[in-house]
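Re: beginner question about structure tokens

> Can someone show what the tokenized structure looks like for a real chain? I only ever see the sequence side.

Sure, here's an example I had lying around. Input first:
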Amino acid sequence: MVGSQRIRDFIEEKRPLIWLGGHIHEGYGGKRLKNTLVYNCSSDPRRSLLRGWAIEVIDVDYSVAERVEI
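And the corresponding structure tokens:
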């Protein structure tokens, strides 16, 4: 397993709509963790490849945004 167990626990507890990360270069991709869309936006320095995600969000109340530090 790669990644942070603390971040996974946080996602499972708080259930945000979207979680964006990017530190694990080998883990690029997206998946659903319960009701949260989880995206790894990492680039791949081994292949000099820049990559990411364009995410269109419709009808979101930005007043529920919360800055967190884990």
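Each token stands for a local structural state, so reading them left to right follows the chain. The mean pLDDT is 80.
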